[in-house]
Amino acid sequence: MAGPSLMDSFFQRSLDDLIKGIRLCLPGGEAAFIAKSVDEIRREIKSTDSQTKATALQKLTYLHSLHWVDMSWAAFPAVELSSSSVHSHKRLALLSASLSFNPTTDVILLLTHQLRKDFSSSNPHDVSLALSTLSSISTLDLSRDLTPELFILLNSSKNFVKKKAIAAILRVFEQYPEAVRVCFKRIVENLESSDMGVLSAAVGLFCELTVREPRSYLPLAPEFYKILLDSRNNWVLIKVLKIFAKLAPLEPRLAKRIVEPICEHLRRTGSKSLAFECVNTIVTSLSEHEPAVKLAIMKIQEFLLENDPNLKYLGLQALAVVAAKHSWAVLENKEVVIKSLDDVDVNIKLESLQLVMAMVSEDNLAEICKVLISYALKSEPEFCNEILGSILSTCSRNFYEVIVDFDWYVSLLGEMSRIPHCQKGDDIETQLIDIGMRVKDVRLELVHVARGLLIDPALLGNPFIHNVLSAAAWLSGEYVEFSRNLLELMESLLQPRTCLLPSPIRAVYIQSAFKVLTFGVYSFLSTGDDASYPSELTDFVLKEDFQESSETVTSAPISGADLSNGLNPRSSHPSAGNGEDPVIAHEQTSSASSKKQQLTQKSVMDLVNLVEVNLGPLAGSHEVEIQERASNILGMIGMIKPRIHSSMDESEGDRIKRELRASGMMKLMFDAFSEELGPVSVSAQERVPIPEGLVLKESLSDIEAICDHIKLPISSSFSLVRSHSLNNATTIHEHPSKEEYEPSSESTSLLAEHRKRHGIYYLSSENKVMISDDYPPALELKDQAIDEAEDLVKLTKQSLDLRKKRNQAKPRPVVVKLDDGEGAHIVVKKPQLKDDLISGAVREVLLGNEAASSSSNKAIKKREKNELNIDRPESNITMTSTVASEPGNASSRHKLRISGKEKKRSSSGKEKKEHDHKHNQKSDRIHAKHKSRQRADGTLNVAAQSPVIPDFLL
Amino acid sequence: MIRGVIVMNDRGKPRLVKFYEFQPAEKQQELIRSIYRVLCSRAENVSNFVKVDSLFGPDVRLVYKTYATLYFVFIFDSSENELAMLDLMQVFVEALDKCFSNVCEIDVVFNFNKVHTILDEFILGGQVLETNSSEVVKTVEEISKFFLPPQLCVCLISFRYSYGYDLLFYAGSRGLQIQSWAVHQFLAGSGDSIFIALVTSFITILC
């Protein structure tokens, strides 16, 4: 054993050597070097020589702390070395313990004895080292076992030790709340200490405790108040202010009391940190006191005008806090705030942005947004998006409550998506669609904005706004009746550059094209019918005057002209050539609000051809969504095209037949699309009743077997559909109706078979969703599908209707809101158990202890008093004995009482309140006696007036 | 409460890492990396505060300051005053400066333990205990008296091994007893380093 150990010790690398070695390492070689050193350390640390061991541990600690080498295996050597009589070794060992031990390290318990020994060491540095170790590795066991020793240290004659003991006890309280009962009084006594270090530590401790649960510390308000008046130490004052910031909201009379001293400090102090703390306390907790707030805002103004960016930043932060209650404060500093948007410091910019948004009201929204957008345009991408994000969130807040002019807002959204750095596509998309659904009156403008976005081919190249484009496409399809020029719209939906879009968005484009086409053809057919076929098919058509349809003639050539410019849709405006601008033509139609755009046969044919040519290739797309939608449209075109073609030159009988069929189908399609979509509540799904007999939690483990079984048929039917759709695209003119249902028959039969075999996984067939075995003709099949869709729409509508009506009384454009489920969920944060325990114990000590003991256990009280009286004057040694017996007794007694009390608490809160209240009154009296020298007159009267919260003030 | 103190250089290498609540090694590494990313992206002459909600949760703030090649970083929560933290950082650097006379990165690199000792005198368990750098320097100097000067270490070790480790216990020679007594006195903190050096060299000559 001595062999390697001796060599290791003699030639052991010191920490300096190790560091030098690491520094000399070539890049990349560091890890290998460290691994080698750890191997060395593993050997060295086993040495019996404490110096060698210490050096090894020191090196390992260094590697652990700064190179994150695992040292959990070296926990025991650290414990071993901590018992060394050599202070430097002890220090190394305890440093390594505090840096590397975690709450689950099992050897922590072995330290208990050593720490206890160190606590009673005559060397203050030993004691302080032990205290600092305890505070970093405290566990429940450690805290419980060492509480008696800490109790002694709290009364140490050396302030150096005392203040460290006070600081360390916070961790002990956290781990072991029972310790509060033992030590609390001693800590309170230290609030009157004349030593700044001790006082500062005690106030700091209370600050920590108060932040967690303020109410328990109200009884100590007089002590804190005294410090607030007397202390001249900024650190102490800052901490006391922090405490009062938490206490003042609980007790209005306390707030009244402290406001003057705080203002005094604010006026007097030259220290920025204290001034800032005063401001902070006033704006957070004393915002009802007008003069104080004014003073604070004056100070904030000073901060804002300073050159120091820190002060400016903190000033803005404080201003943001004030803004919630005193918005005039921000308006007063408007200039500085807006100027700060241009600051070099991102922090300051963000703060001022927040403040600017806090200033927003209905009146200045447009102005502020204009300013912000101009800032957004010239800032770097990150901040630009911050601006856009905060505009979006502010404007959409609470269902767009600040917005009066939705037309303006919608065009602002369009403008925002065109800003080069804009990455807020998702939000803009959501809002565009949301507004479309909620606000009826703005749809015309929405469609206009959407058109602007769609016809710009350049936008397609920017992936960040693809989502916005998706919303635009959806809007112009959904609200196509507001569109000015269907051909132009269709052109932009089908432009070649749409291949740059991701497929889900492209599918939206195609679906919108479908809606546009349906609308165009339908309105053409219905107007045409108006003249020649006043049959029941046209009854549903909005009555259109013949005069107006004659206007069609004037607008028709313009559409034609647009089409001829089709390749460059943007140029349609200037190059329309005709004296009449499409806009004018449109104004006529739009003035007849719900009136549709009129189309001639030629323009409809152009429209249909355009779609056919563009979508033809997509029927073979590999993306299911695209392929399916394209096929749908092509299928429909197949059916309607002959009708449009044949308007003139076909025999009457044929024509009527086709007419009836095409018009009927178009009506159905049109109706399906014209059903209005409303917003859906987040909780809508939950309100759908679960059908009877549906077992949701049934184990589906055997479904795999079924899936295995069905795999082949599925894939084959899939390919069938595919090939069919290709077929469909090419042969569509020949047998449109037959082709339509063949594949579906195939799959339905499969489904039926499947159902027969695995009936248990199907819903009962009452829902008529299930398929019968005789195949309906294509038209009816579609009919049924539409019916279902309609049913669904109706269902959702019914579920929404009630709420809709309730919300519709508003002066500005109606914004549809749903009552429930749309608000954010409020998560109630429960206070932490440990904190609860601490404060419970504190209450016990501050309020309950004296009262209880005075009333019931006179003997115990007597003894306690004796002990307390003895404690103070006597020397450490005698105290140890008395105290050692005391905490045990006291805590066991308390334990009993607490368990009883806890039960009561849980049984009824009211009772507890009364109980506490009694305690409060009693303790108040005792306090009054106790502090009678400091107390002003009349306190007892006040306490009598307001029985619930006792007056703790001086 | 102060949640952590980090000193790192301008290339993101940590020089002092102290968290007052236990953080696993991986987490520490990740935190330091993300803090460094934020810090090195900040220009000069801007405010010293950084939002770290995403790293430490709400209510936690970070203040940093650059001294030469080093970033000093304090992470703290709402029970500390922001400007006071800046002051404390200044005092901490002052103390380092006094202890190492004109502190630079190298001093911090090679005095791992001493820097920790200095920090522990300022902050205990996340609470500020001392705000006066001279007090701390005084205490730290007292503590460092307990540490053997490196030369003396070498002297002692070589002495021990050149005459056999066990000799110290079995030889019973007067000189060795004196020596071990002197070493013990010194290590227990009541001796003087010059005194022990004298004794040691005296014995070396004797033997």
UniProtKB/TrEMBL annotation, chain A:
GO biological process, one term: protein targeting to vacuole
Taxonomy, superkingdom: Eukaryota
Residue span, Clathrin/coatomer adaptor adaptin-like N-terminal domain: 32-495
Residue ranges with Polar residues bias: 565-575, 587-598, 875-891
Compartments it resides in: Endomembrane system; Golgi apparatus
InterPro entries in alphabetical order: AP3_complex_dsu (IPR017105), ARM-like (IPR011989), ARM-type_fold (IPR016024), Clathrin/coatomer_adapt-like_N (IPR002553)
Major subcellular location class: membrane
Keywords: Golgi apparatus, Membrane, Protein transport, Repeat, Transport
Annotated spans, Disordered: 553-598, 851-954
Chain segments annotated as transmembrane: none
Chain intervals with Basic and acidic residues compositional bias: 864-874
GO cellular component: AP-3 adaptor complex; endosome membrane; Golgi apparatus
Compositionally biased region (Basic residues): 892-907
Family per record: Belongs to the adaptor complexes large subunit family.
Assembly and oligomerization: Adaptor protein complex 3 (AP-3) is a heterotetramer.
Function: Part of the AP-3 complex, an adaptor-related complex which seems to be clathrin-associated. The complex is associated with the Golgi region as well as more peripheral structures. It facilitates the budding of vesicles from the Golgi membrane and may be directly involved in trafficking to the vacuole. It also function in maintaining the identity of lytic vacuoles and in regulating the transition between storage and lytic vacuoles.
Protein name from the UniProt record: AP-3 complex subunit delta
Organism: Olea europaea subsp. europaea
From TrEMBL, chain B:
Domain AP complex mu/sigma subunit: 1-143
Gene Ontology CC annotation, any one: endomembrane system
GO biological process annotation, one example: intracellular protein transport
Coiled coil, from the record: none
Location in the cell: Endomembrane system
UniProt key word Membrane: yes
InterPro entries attached to this UniProt entry: AP_complex_ssu, AP_mu_sigma_su, Clathrin_sm-chain_CS, Longin-like_dom_sf
Keywords from the named record: Membrane, Protein transport, Transport
PROSITE patterns: CLAT_ADAPTOR_S
SUPFAM superfamilies: SNARE-like (SSF64356)
Main location: membrane
Family that this chain belongs to: Belongs to the adaptor complexes small subunit family.
Name by which UniProt lists this protein: AP-3 complex subunit sigma-like
